[in-house]
Amino acid sequence: MCDYAITLQTANDEKYIDPLLNLTFGEGRISRPSYAFRAGVLPVSELCFAVKSLDGDLIATLRFWPVSIEGEEALLLGPLAVQPNLQGKGIGRRLVAEGLAKAKAMGYRLCFVVGEAFYYGPYGFELAHPLGYDMRVPVSGDKFQVVALQGDLFDDLPKGVIQPWFPSSRQTRHQTQAIKV
């Protein structure tokens, strides 16, 4: 196990994030539909995390992005990346748990992810298509998932196609700041 600290990302972390994402997902990651979906959108700065070793090395990263569902602001989780030699040690799981807890405390009701069901299921994520959700980019039905952060029933939550949320064109209740992506 490695000792580490979870912090909010800073401008200084930027030069280390893309290399970590490339190492974890490959340089072709930017051609994936979820990257196209986030193009031109700023992540929610209060939900952009860096995990650093006690020596200050970046070992993991996670960001949440604003999306809109029937005019309500929601979140898209990802990407989550952990240094390959440290995967399987619980760092990513702790990061996701803390990120979702903060998103819940901020009042978000819905969070979406495109990821493995076995990984995100323990956090309450369920397959999104059967619940009435879709994305405007092609996405695998067995990876597109949603969680109700406040414990609402999905019947009581907005449904439809999630869209990128552009705070510059709409009022947002959550501050977004420029973080280079």
TrEMBL record:
Primary enzyme class: transferase
Protein's recorded name: GNAT family N-acetyltransferase
Entry keyword Nucleotide-binding: no
Gene3D superfamilies linked: 3.40.630.30
Enzyme Commission number: 2.3.-.-
Keyword field: Acyltransferase, Transferase
Domain N-acetyltransferase: from-to ranges: 4-140
Coiled coil: none
Xref: InterPro entries: Acyl_CoA_acyltransferase, GNAT_dom
Domain of life: Bacteria
GO terms of molecular function: acyltransferase activity
